[in-house]
Amino acid sequence: MEKIKNVIKNIAKPDAEVMEETQKLLDNLTKPRGSLGRLEELTKKVAGITGSSKPELKNRFIVTMAGDHGVTAEGISAYPSEVTPQMVMNFLNGGAGINVLSKHAGAEVVVVDMGVASEMDKHPGLILKKIAPGTQNMAKGPAMTGEQAIKSIEAGISVVEGLVRDRNCGIVGTGDMGIGNTTPSSAITAVMCDSDIEPVTGRGTGIDDKALKNKIEVIRKAIEINKPDRNDPIDILAKIGGFEIGGIAGVILGAALLKIPVVIDGFISGAGALIAAGLEPKTKDYMIAAHCSVEIGHKILLDKLGLKPVLDLGLRLGEGTGAALGISIIDAGIKILNEMATFGDAGVSEKSE
Fold first, then answer.
1. What pLDDT, on a 0 to 100 scale, did the predictor assign at position 291?
2. Residue 351: pLDDT above 90?
3. What is the maximal distance between C-alpha atoms in the chain?
4. Which of 15, 204, 289, 300 makes a 20 to 30 Å CA pair with 265?
5. Can you tell me whether residue 269 is helix, strand or coil?
């Protein structure tokens, strides 16, 4: 826990002076003030985060955290747990949606085994941070121990620290893989957003009405049995969370410490963001919500975090796919700032006073 405490203690607010300077630069470009809307807003935010009025997104990474969930024994998913390691190998072999969209965004996919139930074959693209071979069934007791919850967050911090130290990471997106992980995400959202379970519980991988009803009851049972303390994010993560969710929270904390913009993917990444923000509210200033997922709890979650999604495309794949698209949009805004002519450069008359 000492590592987490030290990270939290050293997270500062984004640079307000740089944001003001960036706004002046944006206002001097050959366009009506504010006419590029969210692009300008996102660019100014990235400038404040990085401390540069001319930011560059040099090295981009999508960190896809993978883990299995004991609660799948309750029949809450349309797919079996064996799909988790199969999809991890698909990521590593470059055949998944996240690989295609990351390439489009000029980003590299980094896959982290946080708690895949089976042993993964060694692969140069796989980072091993396995806490345990999957969580326990949260419908029968805590998903993990408090110590495991702490280790999962610390693992996420160490991953982003390594990317910045060794590979000069300039922006990071979060992603996930784990059959059954919308169930703990809904549970976390219900507790941390003080919501009923039904409004934050969706169909995940595509379950039918009967399975959805069961999923809601499983979440209700898990919360009743475990009684997570809504004021203690570590306790919530331990009792009703997932290893990859803890890892995502750690990535966000590490990114905030190192002044790296962190682009949040969908619902599962949002659950990790709730944990991170619960530990240190200033992390919200470093988050950019890539999109609003079809998962019904995602909007409630984003409202709680005070984040406005960049895109709304009906996505629900996960993996970090929305984050990759979000990075593409952010990159467009940065290019506007850095490449567009000013009124003086172009010899264009400014607005009359």
1. 98
2. no
3. 70
4. 15
5. helix
The token pair at 232 is: 């203690």
Is 319 an active-site residue?
yes
Strand 107-115 with 126-128, pairing: parallel
pLDDT digits (tens, 9 = 90+) for 123-164: 988 999 999 999 999 999 999 999 999 999 999 999 999 999
Say which of 147, 244, 319, 353 is annotated catalytic.
Answer: 319
Phi, psi of 149 (to 5 degrees): -60, -45
Residue 248 belongs to domain with CATH number: 3.40.50.10210
Cα→Cα distances 244→17, 105, 143, 220, 338, Å: 36, 23, 12, 22, 36
245 with 273, same domain? yes
Query: Facing residues of 171 across strands?
Result: 60
Contacts of 202 (CB under 8 A, 6+ apart): 182, 186, 212, 267, 294, 295, 296, 297, 316
Residue 325, SS3 per DSSP:
helix
**Residue 13: which CATH number?**
1.10.1610.10
The whole-angstrom separation of Cα 252 and Cα 234 is 15
The total number of residues shown for the chain amounts to 353
User: Which runs of E-coded beta strand occur in the chain?
Assistant: 59-67, 107-115, 126-128, 169-177, 262-264, 287-289
Distances (CA, A) of 159 to 63, 163, 174, 217, 255: 8, 6, 12, 35, 10
CA–CA distance, 254 with 222 (Å, rounded to integer): 30
Quick one: 205 and 253 in the same domain? yes
Task: Select from 15, 66, 107, 133 the least CA-distant residue to 329.
Answer: 107
Distance CA 80, CA 179 (A): 7
Name the residue range of residue 193's domain. Answer: 59-331
* Residue 315 and residue 224 in one domain: yes
Residues 6+ apart with CB under 8 A from 211: 75, 76, 78
Q: Which helix (H) or strand (E) holds 340?
A: none
Number of domains in the chain: 2
pLDDT score of 352? 62
Q: What is the torsion angle, in degrees rounded to the nearest 10, for the CA atoms of residue 150, residue 71, residue 290 and residue 320?
A: 90
Rounded to an integer, what distance in angstroms lies between the CA atom of residue 130 and that of residue 191? Answer: 26
